[in-house]
Design goal:
Elements lengths: L36 H53 L10 E6 L2 E11 L7 E11 L2 E9 L8 H9 L1 E6 L2 E10 L4 E3 H4 L3 E2 L2 E2 L5 E2 L14 E10 L11 H6 L9 H9 L9 H6 L1 E8 L2
Antiparallel strand pairs: 1-2, 1-10, 2-3, 3-4, 4-5, 6-7, 6-11, 8-9, 11-12
Length: 295
């Protein structure tokens, strides 16, 4: 039997076994770091839509604000006319046969009358003032002329103020100035139907008529006028210069008996006749009416 030989193996006598882990394949990077062309086009389209909407909202807001300012301007002009007229009528001389002289000039009304006015500075006395209202073109004009105590012509003087009195422009964008009379029985009639052509035995000049305010000198058969319904249609000073804005005034007719100017004008504005007129002027149109008592 062979003798066994002991062999000693040292680990260091052999190289260490190295284990390697296989790596998964990695897809190569494409190098793209931005948006695609389609994404850019979509973003630009969204931006354009948002910008268009914002511009439209801004334009509509600007138009609404501008129209609102024009309406306020037109309202202010009409109110100046009516407030001034009302203040003058509060000092109306209507006793002892004094009256208001009226004339229908085309589709607009002219008014003339005597009002009380304070005398010169430092004086407590009152005197008469001849006052007239008329629409000249698109300008609402108030004319006035003092009347001295020595002047006794209470018919011609008030009427002549329309040509000889001092001229004061109250408003520059007025299209219509219309007045109708309210009788003692409540009936509403055109001023031309309620006026008289003679007063104090004199013929009223200039095509004017005298409203019967008191008795005497007016007879019992004559209906007394207790108030005037006065209406003003106006636009702002910017729209008054538009080429076709005068057609608005042509369409606003004088009312027949039993109707007020505002009633008829509102009906006309809502009709198809206004569809062909300049929209800015129609949007800015303001119509104001006031009843002024004659005491």
């Amino acid at each position: 039997m062979d003798k066994c030989t002991r062999i000693t193996l040292n680990v260091g006598d052999f190289p260490a076994h190295r284990m390697t882990v296989p790596m998964l394949p990695v897809a190569p990077r494409s190098g793209r770091s931005g948006f695609s062309l389609m994404e850019l086009l979509v973003a630009m389209a969204v931006l354009v839509i948002i910008s268009a909407l914002l511009f439209q909202i801004s334009e509509q807001t600007h138009r609404a604000v501008r129209t609102s300012h024009q309406q306020m301007d037109a309202t202010q002009q009409a109110r100046i006319v009516l407030d001034t007229l009302s203040a003058d009528f509060s000092n109306l001389v209507a006793q002892n046969g004094f009256t208001v002289f009226v004339k229908q000039d085309g589709t607009n009304t002219k008014l003339c009358f005597l009002a009380r006015s304070r005398g010169p500075a430092g004086s407590s006395d009152f005197r008469f003032m001849a006052i007239g209202y008329a629409l000249e073109g698109s300008e609402m004009v108030r004319r006035s002329s003092p009347m001295t105590w020595s002047e006794m012509d209470f018919v011609t003087k008030p009427v002549n103020v329309m040509t000889t009195g001092d001229r004061d422009i109250l408003a520059k964008g007025v299209l219509r100035f219309e007045a109708v009379a309210v009788l003692e029985n409540g009936a509403i009639v055109p001023v031309t139907q309620s006026g008289l052509t003679t007063l104090f035995g004199d013929v009223v000049p200039g095509g004017f008529a005298a409203l019967p305010l008191n008795k005497p000198p007016f007879t019992a058969s004559q209906s007394r006028v207790t108030a005037l319904i006065v209406a003003v249609a106006s636009v702002d000073e910017q729209n008054i210069s538009l080429p076709r804005v005068s057609q608005i005034a042509d369409l606003l007719k004088s009312p027949a008996a039993g109707r007020t100017p505002l009633d008829l004008w509102t009906e006309t504005v809502n009709s198809s006749e206004f569809a062909v007129l300049p929209r800015p002027a129609v949007a800015a149109l303001q119509m104001i009416q006031e009843t002024i008592p004659l005491r």
